[in-house]
Specification:
Length: about 350
């Protein structure tokens, strides 16, 4: 049992309602559209002074974001359960890398970062208020209750924008990308809160880029697990992410396709000099708290092979998620795979998003 919140209409944990992917914004008069925030999904439980933050995976987040407790007490009803997203706003938009840095075991480090890069909470659903469990009510009713509940908020607590106009949603889909948002979410106004079910629709950005394949990682010795991708900036080939999620059949095919590009032992490679040695003398990525215990070694390739990949979001100078393989590009020279091929959305002021 969580301390101090046993008198709420229900107790944590709560499995958040999820969304299924679509490439088109759904139309119809029964949808409400909201920006898709690129942060940590969070369920907030408040009972008086007690505030608990739970992650999407039902794990506690409270200790990692101590700066949110007081603003949430000042902004939320005395007793409530609210679904939303924890985000950090940087100079150029939402900064997911800064969020990742907050998941640190040292309390002193968390406290320092909470002062240097303070987080905000964006609310988008109300699951309970007072003695009332709202999960069985339609979203239209929960949204109206949320708007009323967050009539008075402080700077770091925000009510997500929403619209019933698909044209506005389409404008958001394009315009908000520059601020680091992930797309648009469509919610059926009649849907109750269905825990753990993919009952919403998320429309995410997907674009393509031609990248240099500078190396690969094994899945097993019989198959390729992922391709290591690079893009040029001036004369430097930078690592920008990976391409993965191949079928077993495709992993085996890639072994043969990459064989002519395997780098001879001792040959120079733009990513090897700065990389520590891995198992068996192969290069590997520098250790961090995110890859402890994992084999991060990789096999270098002559950096002339080019492939086209699909990606949804660029975070800084790297792909935010793993990309999807589309095709080889034998017609492209490696030197032509540059950052300037990527669409550059004009950033919008975060205060415009926060309303």
């Amino acid at each position: 049992m969580y301390r101090g919140i046993a008198v709420l209409p229900f107790q944590p944990p709560v499995s958040p309602m999820l969304a299924r992917l679509s490439r088109e914004i759904p139309l119809g008069g029964h949808f409400v559209y909201e920006p898709k925030w690129d942060g940590f999904r969070c369920i907030v439980f408040r009972d008086g002074d007690d505030v608990t933050l739970d992650s999407r995976n039902e794990r506690p987040l409270t200790r990692y974001f101590p700066e949110l407790a007081e603003p949430l007490r000042a902004s939320l009803p005395e007793r409530c359960v609210v679904d939303g997203e924890i985000v950090i706003a940087g100079a150029s938009g939402l900064d997911f890398d800064a969020l990742l840095q907050r998941l640190h075991p040292a309390a002193s480090r968390v406290k320092l970062l909470s002062e240097q890069t303070p987080a905000s909470f964006v609310a988008f659903d109300l699951l309970a208020v007072g003695d009332d469990d709202l999960r069985s009510e339609p979203f239209s009713s929960r949204r109206a209750s949320l708007v009323a509940a967050l009539a008075q908020t402080v700077d770091s607590v925000h009510l997500t924008p929403s619209t019933t106009d698909p044209d506005v949603a389409q404008e958001w889909f394009s315009r908000f990308e520059g601020a680091g948002l992930d797309g648009v979410v469509a919610k059926d106004v009649a849907t109750p809160y269905l825990e753990g079910q993919r009952s919403m629709i998320k429309v995410k950005h997907e674009r393509t880029a031609d990248c240099v394949v500078g190396g690969f990682r094994w899945h097993t010795r019989d198959g390729v697990g992922s391709l290591l991708l690079g893009l040029f900036d001036d004369e430097v080939l930078h690592r920008v992410g990976v391409c993965s999620s191949f079928s077993a059949k495709r992993r085996a095919e890639l072994v043969e396709e990459l064989e002519p590009f395997r780098l001879p032992t001792g040959s120079p490679h733009p990513w090897i000099d700065a990389a520590p040695s891995g198992a068996g003398g192969r290069p590997s990525d520098a250790p961090s708290r995110w890859n402890q215990g994992r084999d991060t070694s990789w096999e270098p390739l002559v950096p002339t092979l080019v492939c086209e990949v699909a990606f949804d979001h660029l975070q800084g100078d790297r792909f935010r998620h793993a990309t999807s393989f589309r095709r080889w590009r034998p017609d492209r020279r490696a030197e032509s795979c540059r950052y300037d091929q990527l669409d550059s959305a004009v950033p919008v002021e975060l205060r415009e998003i926060f309303g």
